[in-house]
Amino acid sequence: MTATAPITQDLITIPRKLPEDGLINLVGLTRNQLRDVLIAAGTPEKQAKMRVGQIWQWIYQKGVRDFDAMTNLAKDYRVMLAGNFEITLPEVVTRQLSEDGTRKYLVRISGGHEVEVVYIPEESRGTLCISSQVGCTLTCSFCHTGTQKLVRNLTAGEIIGQVMLVRDDLGEWPEPGRNPKDETRLLSNIVLMGMGEPLYNFENVRDAMKIAMDPEGISLSRRRITLSTSGVVPEIFRTAEEIGCLLAVSFHATTDEVRDRLVPINKRWNIAELLEALRTYPEVSNSERITFEYVMLKDVNDSDDDARRLVQLIKGIPAKINLIPFNEWPGAPYQRSSNNRIRAFADIIYKAGYASPIRTPRGEDIMAACGQLKSATERARKSKKQIDAEAGLS
Ligand code: SAH
Ligand code: SF4
């Protein structure tokens, strides 16, 4: 049915207010937004809450994409829905499978842009690494995504759509009446560690994560969602209040001088300001501890002194330090620290009383590891010279 076609059922006798230019995608709408569009399409207000609940369950609990399959809705109502709305996900362009079981999806969103999504199976959980932006406005000098200009923010639908399309691929929509427990799910955890800075796309990330956590839908615990930020200080408090998920921070250096070079947002909010925001996070969000991500760059940030400074800096913050061996990409101006160096660094942190896991790079053979993500069509790559200059290496 086109946008101007009349709607032929008694429910919808009022003129249709939407959509002007095609069908409205229901994926990514908050419950309130869903209610509003259903009412605008003619759903009587007093029925709206119930309809929202029904449709929500079909979409997010059962994985249904076809209004006709929503059998607890009257036939006429389903016709109305199909005439106004759609349930669509970003399109999977390619899917690569690593030797270690990691799956990397190249996903196309509207406008022809592409982002990458990575699924990492482990023994006791399956983690999905999702993207929040096409490219990134920030230019961390060790990050492949940082070499790509921001193209645009993803919508909430495109963010939650990444979760849904991987559930499709894993065949993980529950049988009717059976809701999987978190610990037995194939997709049990979400990390916002793909392309982009999630806190520069706050509202859409928040709405998408609210959908992921909604108990009548995908229903992931907020403790199974980790948002990683490079340190957008003003939004950290909001994350605690409005999302309440776990927080990871791309720390990567122990002096402002080095952090300015590695994570340039440090020039805006320095280490002291960042730490102050982090101190309040666990309390406000009611989450246990913050993950400090620390990429190990040979001779840049990997000395024993760095390790000692790090434990001094984070004193008093419930924390775990995730050491990430640098993942190389073509033209990168850094090298990975040696295994011995990483272990020595980890040891100092561990002895100071912090968990200091060394992240095993996953999916390296398909360029799916941290910081390697960059879509094939967006190769506006900066020259090595330019990157070196920004990193202060030339
Ligand atoms: N923009 C957010 C989330 C995406 S990056 C952030 O910066 O936190 C996810 C993690 O991978 C960050 O800690 C980032 O610093 C790290 N990372 C980026 N490039 C990397 C690389 N080449 N090797 C290892 N880790 C990298
Ligand atoms: Fe952007 Fe994060 Fe990469 Fe920095 S590390 S450029 S914030 S994606």
Description:
There is one protein chain. The chain has 394 residues and is an alpha/beta fold. It folds into two domains: 21-86, Orthogonal Bundle (DNA polymerase, domain 1); 91-390, Alpha-Beta Barrel (TIM Barrel), CATH 3.20.20.70. It contains eleven helices and 13 strands. It has helices spanning 31-40, 45-61, 75-84, 156-170, 202-213, 233-243, 256-262, 271-285, 304-313, 339-351, 384-390, and strands at 24-25, 85-86, 91-97, 103-108, 114-121, 126-129, 133-134, 152-153, 189-192, 225-229, 246-250, 290-296, 319-325. Helix 4 packs parallel to helix 5. Residues 1-19, 375-388 and 390-394 have low confidence and may be disordered. It binds S-adenosyl-L-homocysteine (SAH) and iron/sulfur cluster.
The CATH topology of the largest domain turns out to be: TIM Barrel
Classified in CATH, the superfamily of the largest domain is: Aldolase class I
The chain-level structural class is: alpha/beta
Low-confidence spans: pLDDT under 50, at least 5 residues?
1-19, 375-388, 390-394
- Annotated CATH architecture of the largest domain: Alpha-Beta Barrel
Bound molecules: S-adenosyl-L-homocysteine, iron/sulfur cluster
What letter string, H or E per element, gives the SSE order?
A: EHHHEEEEEEEHEHEHEHHEHEHH
Principal-axis shape equals elongated
Largest sheet: 9 strands, mixed
State the strand order across the main sheet: 3-4-5-6-9-10-11-12-13
Taking all residues together, what is the mean pLDDT? 87
Number of strands: 13
- The number of distinct structural domains comes to 2
**Ends distance:** 60 Å
- Portion of residues in helices? 25-40%
How much beta, percentage-wise?
15-25%
